[in-house]
Amino acid sequence: MFSDLENFNEVNELEVEKVDPNKPTPAVVHNSKVRKFLLAGDCHCHIENMRSGNSFEYKIQRNKKKKNMYFVNVASGLGDIYCGYFYVNADLIDYRKGEKGAFGENDVRVQALLFTLRNARKLPTYVVVQHFGKCAHCGALLTDIDSLHRGLCSLCEY
Ligand SMILES: [Zn+2]
Predict the structure, then answer these.
(1) Partners of 82 in the β-ladder
(2) Which range, of 7-16, 23-32, 73-82, 145-154, averages the lowest pLDDT?
């Protein structure tokens, strides 16, 4: 009897280990939350356009000194590639390759991101934006359903 109970506890501990609460949970960002998510300051995301078939992974980081300026990196098989930067002025998204950037506005990776940003207020359903389980502003793990839907933790949902 006593040894049975011990076995039962062991099994439980193993199950708890499998569902690790410290492991990020990737999820799709709700379409109405995409603009805020992408411009939150430290955004790591995956964007898939099901119409064009394009799908890329980005890091979009706000310039700490110029709040309306963002740097764009795209993931590749060889690691992150710095693409360029963009300015946000209300609804205008002004992209520049700059001197150190790898891709101009006509590059498909840049186009896929700019299309999403420029249409983010009314994003077509064929564009799917996904986060990797961390707040796009502070990096905290997203755990509750509301946070997972917006890609921002409850503290950063300003
Ligand atoms: Zn946060």
Answers:
(1) 73
(2) 7-16
pTM: 0.86
Give distance in angstroms: CA of 139 to centre of ligand 1: 6
Distance 141 CA to ligand 1 centre (A): 8
**Unique residue bearing structure tokens 């992150």:** 80
Question: How much distance in Å is there from the Cα of 48 to the middle of ligand 1?
Answer: 24
CA of 55 to the centre of ligand 1 (A): 25
Strands (E), 1-100: 27-28, 42-49, 55-62, 69-76, 79-89, 92-96
Above 60 in pLDDT, residue 137? Answer: yes
